[in-house]
Amino acid sequence: MVRMSAAERRESIVRAASAEFARGGYHGTSTEAIAKRVGVSQPYLFRLFPGKKAIFLAAAERCVEDTIRMFAEASEGLEGEGALQAMAGVYTRTIAERPELLMMQMQMYLAVAAAEEEGDEEFGASVRAGWLRLWDTVHLALGADVCETTSFMAYGMLINCLSAMGFPSGHRIWEGLDLSARAEGPSKK
């Protein structure tokens, strides 16, 4: 059996934590469950991360960076409507294929509210910084048009909410979210 380096083990912990936090949220996920998923002891987990909060923030950072990378790669060499369609397409495919990415995003937002209610501002600062990097990635791809960026992000959050609630594809609730119909305009449908 090949031994993993500390960096490789840390990476496996972040992946496992992302899956566990996506399913159970910050308060509903134990470090024991994360350690068990990775196959390490809790003391080893805490040699790589100072605590549960650090593990969650590393998983949140990974989630944001994966989304940023996905949007940047999808929109590379495109602009305007082409970039919008490419980013929307890759996002909807990704959350259908990897629902844990969507659920981790939703858990991040909930964790910020809960942490700040308890007086912990670090969660919010970290998640908001990631959100701003995501916003900037989309904003640049859409030609630095604030209205297009706002619309794209608003559609994305609505898609997140509807997906998290389990509305199946083909349900009437999705009719207004067809971005290709948006590009054609209402009179061309």
TrEMBL record:
Please tell me whether the keyword DNA-binding is annotated for this protein: yes
Kindly give the InterPro entries that the UniProt entry links to this protein: Homeodomain-like_sf, HTH-type_TetR-like_transc_reg, HTH_TetR
Could you name the domain of life of the organism this protein comes from?
Bacteria
Which sequence positions fall in the DNA-binding region? 30-49
Q: By its UniProt entry, which Gene3D superfamilies does this protein fall under?
A: Tetracycline Repressor, domain 2
Q: What PANTHER family does the record point to?
A: HTH-TYPE TRANSCRIPTIONAL DUAL REGULATOR CECR, HTH-TYPE TRANSCRIPTIONAL REGULATOR RUTR
Provide the protein name.
TetR/AcrR family transcriptional regulator
Record's keyword terms, sorted: DNA-binding
Q: Does the keyword Signal apply?
A: no
Q: Where is the HTH tetR-type domain?
A: 7-67
* Organism whose genome encodes this protein: Streptomyces incanus
